[in-house]
Amino acid sequence: MLQPSYKSLQRQLRRLPLPTNAIKDGSAVLKHRYKLGKTKIFETIFTQILQYEKYHKSIPLLLDAIYKDSKPKWYRDFINIPYMQVKKDWPTMHIIDELTKDTKTISMYHEKLQSPFRLVDHVKGKDKVKKNAFPIFTKYSDQTSSVPRLINDVEKAYKFLMNESIFNLTKHPFEVIHLPTKMGTPEHPVGLDTNLRDTVTLH
């Protein structure tokens, strides 16, 4: 059986109920597969979805075909970026901001969150940390402008998966939600960073 034309396969892909980023990523994978003459899995999935409307079973298979073997750049970047590099841009919510609108209370709470200790203020002379002591942080330090775009791509994919019941996934907030300690005091900065790490890792 002859392989369908490239344009025909791409048209079928664009008709599928997927977010724009998934269509874009799928298009690149499909192009690569077409050059290898290995589009059978896409042909089968397209038929199951577009002709027989078997979304529940076929959409997960399609996402596997797109992402399992050929992951997009934003996915690779997200897996490798240090979680502290997304700290400034990752959506964050302190529960106190939802519990009260009293500006004095909120201001006092956020002042307590500020850590008085900064390593660079206490390391002097020959003890200073070398510029390239942390190469993986250095790698991303000049890419801060791309971090918001990366988070946006991750959030779009995450929300798509969470909103589709066919994946049967446990829903977790995308935002980092900071709670006070059991004593009702603001969490220590180390605890805030741990919460950030756990949330980012979960996604």
Structural summary, described in words:
With 203 residues, this protein is mainly alpha-helical. Strands 1-2 form a two-stranded parallel ribbon. Helix 1 packs antiparallel against helix 2 and helix 5 packs across helix 10.
Helix and strand layout, with pairings?
Elements: H1 6-14, H2 20-36, H3 40-50, H4 55-67, H5 73-80, E1 92-94, H6 96-99, H7 103-113, H8 119-122, H9 135-141, H10 147-163, E2 176-178, H11 189-202
Parallel strand pairs: 1-2
Helix pairs in contact: 1-2, 2-4, 3-4, 5-10
**Helix proportion:** 55-70%
H-E string: HHHHHEHHHHHEH
Tell how many strands the DSSP assignment holds: 2
Average predicted confidence as pLDDT: 80
Give me the Rg, rounded: 23 Å
Indicate the proportion of strand residues: under 5%
The first-to-last residue Cα distance is 41 Å
Largest sheet geometry: 2 strands, parallel
Number of helices: 11
Low-pLDDT windows of residues: 126-144
Instruction: Kindly report the spatial arrangement of strands forming the biggest sheet.
Output: 1-2
How does the helix and strand content classify structurally? mainly alpha
Number of domains as seen in the coordinates: 2
